[in-house]
Amino acid sequence: MSSSGDDLFTRDDPIFENKELLEINHLPAEGRIVGRDDEISELANAVNPAIFGQSPSNLLIYGKTGTGKSLCAKYISERAVRVAGDEEITAAFAYVDCAQDNTETQAVQTIAHTLNEPSVTDVRIPDKGLSTSTYYKRLWTVLDSQYDVVLVILDEVDKLDDDDILMQLSRAGEAGKLESCKIGVIGISNKIKYKDRLDERVKSSLCEREFVFPPYDANQLRDIMQARSDAFKDGVLEPSVIPRAAALAAREHGDARKAIDILRYAGEIAQSKGSETVREDFVVQARERAETDRFRELIRGSTPHSRYVLQALAVLSLNAAEEDGFRTTKIYDVYEEICRQESSDPLSLRRVRDLLKEHAFLDILEQTRRSGGSAEGSYTEHQLLEDPEVVRTVLVETGDP
Ligand SMILES: Nc1ncnc2c1ncn2[C@@H]1O[C@H](COP(=O)(O)OP(=O)(O)OP(=O)(O)O)[C@@H](O)[C@H]1O
Q: What is the ipTM of this complex?
């Protein structure tokens, strides 16, 4: 019993020993990065010139979510900066989450703010209030007065409003913006088609080297979780928990983030049930929670009509589970019905088609072109990639439809 004698609160966590190992922003130490040795050494090769203060190649890393892109990019940047230091080269890296800093101004501000050491540069980088060009000018001053070389990681680079910052950063040297500092840009995207959208000039300078990170298989996911099993107290994890979580996460698309989320949630479920161990049956509930969380995150900020369209597809999928796709016109009929229930004017078929395309871009659904024979011509079918139950639950819970 504690000194105050109040036993309403638990002071000793019976499940977790070191929960931060399972937090999403945790950057695992070297020995805990599993199954990415080849990717890491290729990335190292591309940024290698940085350790001598020379221009590293600009890179683009693709791969589905949770395949370790951000992790490896940060890891390699950190290591390059450290080794450069041993060579008496002043290097640093800045990380920008473009889903959050999605305008050019915000992204430049973040880079400048991260890299600026005001006591050295005498430059101020306010949160806001300056024009984009002033932020750039200050960034160039910061870079030239402090560093020989910097790496800039642009995560979810496809979320940027436009390509201007890519152009500025990847060409700062040749455009004479920088006198001595060299920049290497590491772009990261889940969208394999991202490159097709880029301006030719940006494409040629940003995509000097490209990497595709493949999804993890169940064995790799198991090793990734095993390497963090010391997040739990000794003997708390039942032996079947990690293999089950790995099998579930591999069945979707080998997403390590989801695997780790499942493990953390399974521990939290054990805590809330007052169980002394984390049991295999908690894994299934944990997976549902991980799915729901991910989907909630995906549709955060989407407009009511974009949600009605998804709801229409979820309704169709739940009512005809055996069908593996639905035509736009069929979705539109259900969508119109939902609009009626919501007393909202439906958008045109064409707008709905665009909204479906946006959802496909976010990997919420998949579109397939089909040929209906000479009489019908070709048409598109849409299939949810998310569990329709999850889609419906989240849409209902988030209020709108
Ligand atoms: N090979 C690995 N070894 C250990 N942990 C890993 C590995 N790959 C990914 N992880 C962990 O999985 C989570 C997701 O990884 P990461 O953020 O790098 O994925 P990502 O490919 O960048 O995904 P997204 O595109 O969604 O940002 C992180 O917590 C990361 O630490």
A: 0.96
